[in-house]
Amino acid sequence: MPRVRVPLPPRLGAPIPYPVKQSGGSGGILGLLGGLAGLLLCLLCLATMGLLGLFAAFIAVTAYLGWIYRALRAAGNGSSVNYMNMAILLAALCFAGYHKLRRSL
User: What distance in Å separates the CA atoms of residue 23 and residue 25, rounded to the nearest whole number?
Assistant: First the structure.
């Protein structure tokens, strides 16, 4: 197939100059602010995801401890047994919290 050349239409005067912002000036400050805003947004997003994970873990721990408490309450019907079971659960929570805090430091 032969190639056909199509002529371009003639230009109607000089080309239109587009406004171009020169580099320098306030661009550096705005670039710095944009970078800091992006970093802050990223940190806030990570903190939000961490809080959602903590909330989900808290729901699971609460359900598990409720199951343990019901099992312990069904094992003994006396009030002294209930107080002893609550003390055991509280000691287990304090022990787990202490080790979590110690490991994070």
Answer: 7
Distance CA 81, CA 25 (A): 76
pTM: 0.38
pLDDT value for 22 = 62
- What residues contact residue 93 under an 8 Å CB cut-off, 6+ apart? 65
Place of tokens 């802050």: 40
Q: Token pair of 36, please?
A: 């800091």
Q: How many CB atoms lie within 10 A of CB 68?
A: 14
pLDDT in tens, 38-79: 888 888 888 888 888 888 888 888 888 888 778 777 776 666
- Would you say how long the chain is, in residues? 105
Which positions ≥6 away from 85 have C-beta within 8 Å?
69, 72, 73, 76
Query: What residue type is assigned to position 38 of the chain?
Result: G
DSSP 7-36: PPPPP-SSPPPPP-PPSSTTHHHHHHHHHH
